[in-house]
Design goal:
The structure holds 2 protein chains of 2 kinds. By secondary structure, chain A is mostly helical. In chain A, 70% of the residues lie in helices and 0% in strands. In chain B, helix 3 (47-60) packs parallel to helix 5 (99-113), helix 5 (99-113) runs parallel beside helix 6 (135-148) and helix 6 packs across helix 8 (174-182). The chains are: A mainly alpha, B alpha/beta.
Chain lengths: 476, 309
């Protein structure tokens, strides 16, 4: 049951309506029961692995709270056991352990949340009060809008919401939530799933296409991945909003970044925040020697790569981002130290465009490794781009000439342009939601109706395509 | 509450408009445009209906034919092109996807409109074919055309109940079937929602073959089962299928027919087939196909009277 399944879309309005009909004292248990049922449904037998992880971590938390003298030991044991379980389930193939079980969906996400929860209990930021902390803990981990692919919420902030929230219906909040969901479905169905048709074709059959088409494939993948994950996040935010719980946004127009460092402040923000707080800073962060700093950056991004998947290509992807950031630090230092260079204004439009272009090229180059079926395939894909850049063919063959109908291409391009415009508008400080709210009610309803119609048309266009999968980050 | 009321009214109105647009997609005026927008162009062709309806109309037309040849697409490939030379034989090969119940309907309609009929030949490359197991084909080739011809209710209640379980009660209603056929969007959504199942096609085939034998006997018509030519690489499969089927029908009236069916099997080199099933381009001419019929007649002499020129 994914967010785009018909069952989920028809079920969620009833669930939310019921939430506001039941007495206040039953609302938290209702959320917990719904979340647990959702997790059991999607995980089936592998839900027991989640239960095991929860038992290990909560036991550690209780021991940390009751035996302060040995709290560090309990914390470390809890962390080691949780990571060991994560490694065993996720990387059993890589470390040649024959397991008949598959890793539970969402394991990468809930494991990080378990680790940060234990850390927060150790630091005294969360008080369990024995077994009375179980409902909040379970809801923090299992809360269904964010279970599969995040956002990776701060446990203190989330639990604070659960303790203080009054669960009263707020029409403005509900409307905002609906808008989030609507936009999320546009991103997922109209942009990501449509782009996936072309990306899958180009990456699977790259030997049959010229280099410029493969560049288009790489660019489309960058858009697909962003729209897919941002779409998921918006749907999760929207559902949570309607249930009165605020989740953090995971993306801030990442492809508007002017440096790779800035990119990681805008892309998968909850993960990069977690990595900074629990890997980079404990390693020493930037408050150490320059070489140590470089090591910390590389280690953090290598872990990020491995977190995404068990394979050399993920390690290469993470390593590339580490190298990019080290390169930026070196370039910045060089420019700062070289006072003889003529000063170029920071807001020089040519400089901005150049920075943006370089950043996008670097990020997209790394995405090739992320998307390709293997490291070997990625290198062959790149080699073909370089060796077969037959620009004379551009006028004769483009994405409209691929096997997909022009209606599919056109809708995808309209969706992409809308996403770009939305991101530019937001980047410049205005939220499209606020623009929409300031329109007359007729315009607002009309826009909503058009968006719903576009989602339906988009879904029908790709219905039955076997190459379309559920959300990409559900695989991590 | 006012806001919630407005919201509910909005949802209802939007749903009505979208439903209206959806239904308009099935009208002749908007079909093509709707199919283009929804990337459902291939669902405007009504390929299955256009392929099977002429077969139904042909068997229902009263004419001078006294012998009927029906079967799957291989049967059609071999025989249909020789119709102009034959006044006795109605050469009406169609598609394996109409299933044996579909062949049963074609044969019974022929017998109704041809009281002087003497022989019926069923020519197939597989005893049961895909039957009801591959749902998209069964729905498009059996349910839609035979429903539109008003013949589906001539099947047994048990078969119709099974089909309702497989396809859904609502999608067995004549009005809905017609809408699925004409509305490219509904067709795309429904056909792509169908999957496969583990339906017992052999039991279905055996049941309708027994009915065919009875119907033919009661009309004084001789029923023949002939195996279509197959590739040599399929010999082991045919042999295995033969053993399995003969085991199932051992001691019944069907045994003689099925034994003759498998005994009539002829094999060609794999290179003669384009996809392992249908003959390749080299056979796209009357001379080559006439040769095939002659080869088949060696084991099924009753086919030797079909004229090929």
């Amino acid at each position: 049951m994914s967010f785009v399944s018909l069952f989920f879309i028809t079920f969620i309005p009833f669930y939310i309506c019921m939430f506001y009909c039941i007495p206040r004292s039953f609302k938290k248990p209702y959320l917990l029961i719904g979340s647990t049922a959702f997790c059991i449904y999607i995980l089936q037998e592998s839900f027991w692995w989640v239960v095991l992880a929860l038992v290990i971590s909560y036991s550690s938390c209780i021991l940390i709270e009751y035996d302060q003298k040995h709290a560090q030991i309990y914390k470390n044991v809890g962390i080691i056991l949780s990571i060991a379980l994560f490694v065993l389930l996720k990387y059993s193939g890589l470390i040649h352990i024959p397991l008949t079980f598959t890793a539970p969906v969402g394991i990468s996400f809930y494991t990080l949340q378990i680790l940060s929860y234990m850390n927060n209990v150790y630091n005294g930021k969360i008080t369990l009060s024995g077994l009375r902390g179980i409902p909040n803990y379970l809801l923090y981990i299992l809360f269904f809008p964010k279970f599969i692919s995040g956002p990776i919420e701060s446990p203190t902030e989330f639990c604070k919401q659960l303790d203080s929230y009054e669960f009263r219906f707020d029409s403005d909040s509900a409307l905002k939530g609906l808008c989030y969901m609507l936009w999320g479905y546009i991103e997922k169905i109209v942009i990501a799933d449509h782009a996936a048709l072309f990306v899958n074709e180009l990456f699977s059959n790259y030997t049959q296409y010229h280099g410029y088409m493969l560049i288009i494939g790489a660019i489309l993948y960058a858009i697909q991945l962003y729209a897919d994950f941002d779409g998921y996040t918006h749907i999760a935010l929207g559902i949570s909003q309607m249930l009165g719980i605020h989740l953090s946004d995971n993306f801030r127009q990442p492809y508007m970044s002017l440096s790779v460092r800035e990119f990681w402040h805008r892309w998968h923000i909850s993960l990069s925040t977690w990595l900074k707080n629990y890997i980079y800073i404990p390693l020493g962060g930037s408050r150490c020697s320059i070489l140590r700093r470089y090591f910390n950056i590389l280690m953090t991004f290598a872990i990020s790569g491995m977190w995404h998947g068990a394979g050399i290509k993920y390690l290469v992807w993470g390593g590339l981002h580490g190298i990019y950031q080290i390169g930026e630090i070196i370039v910045d230092k060089t420019i700062t130290n070289n006072s003889n260079q003529p000063k170029v204004k920071k807001n020089n439009i040519a400089v901005i465009i150049l920075k943006w272009l370089i950043t996008f090229i670097l990020v997209d180059f790394a995405w090739i490794f992320f998307r390709a079926n293997s490291f070997g395939d990625a290198t062959l894909y790149i080699r073909r781009i370089i060796s077969d850049m037959n620009l004379s063919q551009i006028s004769e063959f483009g994405i409209y000439d691929m096997k997909f109908s022009s209606a599919v291409v056109s809708l995808m391009l309209i969706g992409i342009v809308t996403l770009i415009v939305s991101d530019i508008v937001t980047y410049r400080g205005t939220k499209p939601y606020n623009i929409w709210m300031n329109c007359s009610s007729i315009i607002r309803w009309l826009v909503c109706f058009i968006l719903i119609l576009v989602i339906i048309i988009g879904e029908i266009q790709i219905y039955g395509e076997s190459s379309i999968s559920s959300f990409i980050y559900a695989d991590f | 509450m006012k806001k919630i009321g407005k919201f509910i009214i909005y949802i209802i109105m939007s749903s009505l408009i979208i439903t209206l647009l959806f239904l308009m997609a099935g009208t002749n005026r908007f079909r093509i445009v709707a199919a283009y927008i929804a990337n459902a162009d291939e669902y405007t062709a009504q390929t299955a209906t256009k392929e099977i309806m002429p077969c139904i109309e042909k068997v229902q037309t009263s004419d001078s034919y006294t012998k009927l040849v029906v079967g799957d697409s291989v049967c059609g490939q071999i025989f249909n092109g020789f119709q102009e030379y034959n006044e006795d034989f109605s050469l009406t090969g169609s598609n394996d996807a109409i299933t044996i119940p579909g062949q049963y309907l074609l044969i019974t309609e022929f017998l109704k409109s041809h009281p002087n009929a003497t022989d019926v030949y069923l020519v197939t490359r597989s005893f049961s074919g895909n039957g009801f197991q591959y749902e998209p084909w069964a729905y498009q080739y059996l349910v839609i055309p035979f429903s539109e011809a008003g013949l589906l209710q001539n099947l047994d209640n048990e078969t119709l109940n099974d089909m309702s379980d497989i396809f859904g009660n609502i999608f067995m209603l004549p009005r809905v079937i017609e809408e699925v056929d004409h509305n490219p969007i509904l067709s795309k959504l429904y056909i792509n929602s169908l999957d496969g199942n583990s339906y017992d096609n052999n039991s279905l085939t055996i049941h309708y073959l027994e009915k065919l034998i009875d119907v033919c006997a009661s009309n004084g018509v001789t029923f023949h089962m002939v195996h279509a030519p197959v590739a040599m690489s399929a010999e082991a499969y045919v042999s295995s299928e033969r053993d399995n089927i003969l085991n199932l029908i051992s001691g019944t009236d069907l045994e003689a027919y099925v034994t003759a069916y498998y005994d009539s099997t002829i094999y060609y080199d794999d290179s003669a087939f384009s996809d392992g099933i249908h003959f390749n381009r080299e056979f796209y001419n009357n001379e080559a196909l006439a040769e095939v019929i002659r080869d088949m007649s060696d084991k099924a002499p009753e086919l030797s009277t079909i004229k090929t020129s």
